[in-house]
Specification:
Blueprint (H helix, E strand, L loop, with lengths): L2 H14 L19 H15 L14 H13 L9
Helix pairs in contact: 1-2, 1-3
Length: about 90
């Protein structure tokens, strides 16, 4: 599993009190008890944890855990590279 998946999984465990073993990339969010409102609120958790802003059209409702990971990776790929301090 990649690092993004592992971070998203850890955030889901903490936010939704889900058994980590229940979370796989193929798991539907609804199977985890994540409803539409919770999915929307989770976007804010992701933005804070990963320090980015998701597109307004990002919709995680009813998707898979992998959809969340993909959305995070897309948002991260659009972030400017941080320059190392000299």
């Amino acid at each position: 599993m990649n690092g993004t998946f592992e971070r998203v999984k850890a955030l889901m465990v903490g936010e939704f009190q889900i058994d980590p073993d229940a979370i796989t990339p193929e798991t539907h969010l609804t199977e985890l008890g994540v409803d539409s409102l919770a999915a929307l609120e989770f976007v804010f958790v992701l933005e804070e944890a990963f320090r980015f802003t998701m597109d307004n059209d990002t919709d995680l409702r009813g998707g898979l855990v992998q959809d969340v990971v993909n959305a995070v990776e897309r948002a991260l790929s659009r972030q400017p590279a941080v320059m190392a301090a000299a």
